[in-house]
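Q&A log
Question type: sequence-to-structure
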Amino acid sequence: MKKVIGILAVALISTTISCKENAKQEDENQETMENTMPNESHEGHDHSSGTESTQREIKQSSTKNAETAAIIDAYFEIKNGLVADSKEHTAKGGTAFLAAISKFDMSMVPENAHKEYMEIQESAKEHAEHILKSDIDHQREHFEALNTDITDLVALLGTDKVIYQDFCPMANNNKGALWLSEVKEIKNPYFGSKMLTCGSVKKQIN
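Response status: OK
Response body:
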């Protein structure tokens, strides 16, 4: 029994050290990575996991926009389903997301932002549809791409929510991946219970 406990302890420590080492390396190379990560200008975004790349140039809006709340909340439902390792909960969030984005009042989109919004909407709907019918590994792949769309949506139209942008250095085959969260505590949607607290807060929006 002691031998089994010892093996489990070593495995847990190894995972934690691996996450911390990757996080340390990520911090040391932060300046280089920021050229490819979403930042205040949100330039040069692309979709990962083999999906079609989309590049947008969007400046971060400071508008306290409550109209985006339903879409963002549905995104959080998807994220929390992945945190809980629940394919069903994640798919339910995908259903809520599609409903929210279809009900969004287009009159709330400024004329000069209409083109960008339509690109975001089309891409986000595609990823949500995949999330509805996929296994959890594929759900996570499309969530990573969906995160780009929602980050751009928040930048384009603004939000009245306090949102944290988090980063996991071990996601996406150790290339790292971002996500948005409604809580400051790290709850990793890319690994769920396997590495729940792996990651760090990159910035706070609002």
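Response note: The chain has one domain: 59-205.
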